[in-house]
Specification:
Elements: E1 2-3, E2 6-7, E3 15-20, H1 29-38, E4 45-50, H2 56-65, E5 71-74, H3 79-86, E6 91-92, H4 106-121
Parallel strand pairs: 3-4, 3-6, 4-5
Antiparallel strand pairs: 1-2
């Protein structure tokens, strides 16, 4: 069964690395796409980029240019199947481009805030 580009059993076999969300300037998805080219000998690896944004077309073009066959692009998933979409991955790729402060990504700023608090307290 396929729902909005996501085949429910299509991602059951391969090892799936997923980014789900905005595909914009603050995300460092170039590195995910490039990494798949170093892992071409891993036959059951799939990198799935779910979502859309300002850099979507750039990433599609980069994947094509690098012959990154392990990279798949899917549209945003509806809320009704979002849990199913997210749970189809073994690893989620979350990164922030170096040109953006951690505050552009709430999860990254939380990590940075906890790290800063830990460093100040000595724990």
């Amino acid at each position: 069964m396929t729902i909005n580009g996501l085949a429910t059993n299509d991602l059951a076999g391969p090892f799936v690395v997923m980014h789900s969300g905005n595909v914009g300037h603050a995300q460092d998805l170039d590195n995910l796409i490039r990494a798949t080219t170093f892992l071409r000998d891993v036959a059951d690896l799939t990198a799935v980029i779910v979502g859309f944004g300002a850099r979507h077309e750039d990433h599609v073009a980069l994947a094509a240019q690098l012959d990154a066959d392990a990279v798949r692009f899917l549209p945003y998933q509806p809320r009704e199947i979002l849990a199913q979409s997210l749970s189809s991955a073994e690893v989620h790729f979350v990164a922030s481009a170096m040109v953006f402060p951690a505050t552009s990504c709430p999860a990254a700023s939380t990590v940075c805030s906890r790290r800063a608090a830990r460093d100040r307290s000595g724990r």
